[in-house]
Amino acid sequence: MSLPDDTRCWVTDSFSMTPAKTGVLSESTVALKDLFSIAGHVPSFGHPRWRETHRAETETAPVVSRLLDAGASIRGLAKMDQLAYSLIGNVGEGEAPENPLHPDRFTGGSSSGSAAAVAGGLADVGIGTDTAGSIRVPAASCGIFGIRPTHGLVDSTGVLPLAPSFDVVGVLTRDPALLRTVLEVLAGPLQDEMNVREVRVPADILAETGPEVAAAVRGTAAAVAEAVDGRVVERDLGSFVNGEVADLFARVQGREIWAVHGGWIAANKEFLVDDVRMRLDRAEALSSGPEAERSADVRARERYRAEFSEFTSDDSITVLPVMPDLPPRRDATAGELSAFRVGAFRYSAPSSLAGVPEVVIPVLHVAGGRRLGIGLVGGHRRDGGLVRAAMSVCPGGKVLEV
Length: 402
Prior knowledge:
39% of the residues lie in helices and 15% in strands. The protein contains 12 helices and 11 strands. It has helices at residues 48-52, 62-69, 112-119, 136-142, 176-187, 203-206, 211-228, 243-268, 274-287, 291-311, 334-354, 383-393; strands spanning 29-33, 73-78, 125-130, 145-148, 168-173, 198-201, 231-234, 316-321, 358-365, 370-377, 400-401. Strands 1, 2, 3, 4, 5, 6, 7, 8, 9, 10 and 11 form an 11-stranded mixed beta sheet that branches. Helix 7 (211-228) crosses helix 12, helix 8 (243-268) crosses helix 9 and helix 8 (243-268) packs across helix 10 (291-311). The longest helix is centred in the middle third of the chain and has 26 residues, at 243-268. The model has no long low-confidence stretch (mean pLDDT 95).
């Protein structure tokens, strides 16, 4: 990996913060996505217009306080995509952060600056948020570890929301052991007990991916099964991972976004990039649609959550792609960016919709020479077991080779 341009990771008014105490994160530095409340600071939320229309915060978010109390220092406030509403990393404030693993490609979004800083060695820890993949896609894009925790596991007080029933605070690192330490600082002790019997491979889904992605998923499943003394089992997952599920998520998310930010968006829509504005136009239209449609989507979401949660049982780990391929090139066309977003969204929507945890590990497909991000999905509150599995197959942050 190359060292990224330091200035491209941070927002224009970035600053550092020193530890409040000594603790398990002493000597660790943090790249903090610029949507957390810090007393006296106006978060950018990915856009200078947000700063111009909001006052400075009066309190500091618990996540930030816990990091500082554990001995961590804040290296800087990291760039992010506008309103945290992108999976690409190309629509934030100023020049897009550089991807140290693939300098000619985007970092993934919306936690773009945090991922770039961690991947390039500018910070040990990246703290961001994940609503529809904004931790998982940057982790996979930049070749690092990441976790979208169980929804509600980490206190989100003082974090600017996008769609609250999906938003989680997530963590990025170059070493899964540090990932675990940070998550325990934020959420308390994790339970490791999973008694994994099955490591599930979605054979039907892999038939739709490229051969390298499929091989990486199968190789990861084999390594995890050996590490946890389980067995690899092929299970169809097409009913949970498809375009209809992704669109259900997008509809529910869109209505929540408009409920939270509709007033500001309506008054400032002309300041947003076309890509974000078009999706917000749909969010507005959905919010003014028939109540029957809204109610039907709520019921469908609850059914999905129950069924997927049953599938991701306490004694299983499901291995999934995070993206259909590498992140898009920085000179990609609008059509190519849209295709990437749709492809990645299909894989990220299930964990978001069900509220279950997903850990991303970097996997090198040796024959093809590509480093890909592969997701380990578990049941509710099985975050500790997933991180422990990642530590077993990637000791010391070593990239898994398949």
